[in-house]
Amino acid sequence: MTEARAKTPDTPDVEKDVVSVGGSSYAQKDWHYSYKWSRKLLQWGLETRGITPVSVRERIDTQYSKIFFLWLSFNFNILSFSAGTLGPVVFGLGLRDSCLVILFFNLLCSALPAYLTTWGPKLGLRQMCQARYSFGFYGVIVPSVFNLCSMTGFCILNCILGGQTLSSISDGHLSWSVGIVVITLISLFVSFCGYRVLTWYERLAWIPVLVVYIVALGVGGKHLSNPLPAEPATAPAILSFASTVAGFVITYCSLSSDFTIYFNPKVPSWKMFLYSYLGFNVPIILIQCLGAAVAVSAPSVPAWQEGYANGNVGGLIDAMLQPTGNFGKFLTVLMALSVTANIAPTFYSFSLSFQVFIPPFAVIPRYMFSLLATAILIPVSIVGAHKFYDALTNFLGLIGYWASAFGAIVLVEHLLIRRGDFSSYDLRFWKDPRRLPTGFAALGACALSCALIIPSIDQVWFVGPIAAHTGDIGFELAFFSAGVFYVPLRYIELRFRPMV
To answer: What's the maximum distance between 2 C-alpha atoms anywhere in the chain?
Structure first.
């Protein structure tokens, strides 16, 4: 990327928004700087930056391993464990088939979000802002809404799991609702502080969870050695579980570069990709496979089966750790708190996506939207707390469709339309509706792809005619059809509005 395009008046500052750039700091340009309490937060190093791009001279972070630990802690939690249990519990797969699906589809689907993390250092743009260069200033509002719904859904599932787990160690004296509130408030604090605190927390959050899993395997591993035989797997069951696994990881493509815009642009892309790819796959594959193994063995272990009543994953973890006594309860608390490492960065990206959703709100400090996310999350999680498995299965299966289409369009725009050239993105127009694409090509491609996606989905509420014979292949068709439809539509669009 050329220096001329990268250094623009709209791209000041990096982490400490109080630093003056070009005579006037980013923070001072916004209404909130006039408040004493807000100035105090800035002095404490709180990150207020939202979707404003980061200039080349401000991308100075060279601790590239941060992104590995962020994705590691993001996924090293009880939600990954519970997603793995869906193979045996919901889709009737045996341990071998569940683990093969988990392995193959995570390795495949994590490649896209891992690749998109490499764009952050090159452009200094948040992921949804970068998508403006394909979806347009107003068109990107549509995927932003889907992204907000997806992130809220993940946070709800994490809160329910954390609340379940905290409740399970108190013999019912602590309600799920209280546990949900505790989990949410801890996550709010971490996300509120911003990039520095968030990346520091994610470097450490995976360690106690690893201890929990090691102890659980130490005391309960003997029950995993002889899994019960399963019915022969069917293609529809395998593909439907694959769609669920894909939905778990491919949705990260809508927030991938949110956490890499402060890195030095000279970092080799292969290094960023490798850090991210390992950060996704190491925790997800290992823990989902463990969840599948425990779910297969639970019916043959009475204590586990009792703890697992009504799909209570927290109760199952507590039952596994019961032989260790009070130490086991302490470990169960750590496991419950592990979801904060997922919710906190999700709150962070929620704030950014909300500013893209309603562009005038970009002047409001990022952390204010973390408060909004908290206000939404607590009541919705409490209401949905006792329908966890239905919510998890339906949600993970559904969100993979839009994320696949979104990822395909962003990828095709970069690799085919722009020939992989980062200098083709003119950052001067990152918020100019008159110069950015109209969005008709991207939204049109998504709309046309629905003609193939809808007949190919297999959900509780609808089974398409294609899916009735093949199983759920909606996310695969979403990716390929959206990418194919986008190409001719984009070239037509370029005839009327030049590329910026």
So the answer is: 70
* C-alpha to C-alpha distances, 342 to 75, 389, 443, 444, 477, nearest whole angstrom: 7, 19, 30, 33, 29
Residue 141 pLDDT exceeds 60: yes
Band of residue 314 on the pLDDT scale cut at 50, 70, 90: confident
- Among residues 185, 190, 136, the alpha carbon closest in space to that of 162 is found at 185
Strand partners, 458: 463
> HEC profile for 326-380?
HHHHHHHHHHHHCCHHHHHHHHHHHHHHHHHHCHHHHHCCHHHHHHHHHHHHHHH
Half-sphere exposure of 312 (CA within 13 A, CB side): 24
Q: What pLDDT digit, counting tens, does each position of 262-308 carry?
A: 999 999 999 999 999 999 999 999 999 999 999 999 888 888 888 88
In tens, the pLDDT along 66-115 reads 999 999 999 998 889 989 998 998 888 999 999 999 999 999 999 999 99
* ∠ Cα 68 71 76 (to 5°): 115
Give the CB-side neighbour count of residue 379, counting CA atoms within 13 A. Answer: 4
Tell me what percent of the residues of the chain surpass a pLDDT of 90: 51
DSSP 8-class letter at 231: P
pLDDT greater at residue 312 or residue 467: 467
How many C-beta atoms surround the C-beta of residue 229 within 10 A?
A: 8
Residues 352 and 367: their CA atoms lie apart, in Å, by 10
- pLDDT tens per residue across span 14-59: 333 333 333 333 333 444 454 565 555 555 557 778 899 999 988 9
pLDDT, residue 431, reads 92
Q: What is the crossing angle of helices 388-412 and 141-168, to 10°?
A: 150
Half-sphere exposure of 412 (CA within 13 A, CB side): 24
Task: State residue 459 phi and psi, 5-degree precision.
Answer: -125, 165
Cα separation, 234 vs 114, whole angstroms: 31
Question: Which ranges of 169-263 would DSSP assign to H, the alpha helix?
Answer: 176-193, 195-220, 235-250
Q: How many residues does the chain have?
A: 500
Amino acid at 2: T
> pTM (2 decimals)?
0.88
At 328, list the tokens: 């086991």
249 pLDDT above the threshold of 90? yes
Contact predicate 410/254, CB 8 Å: no
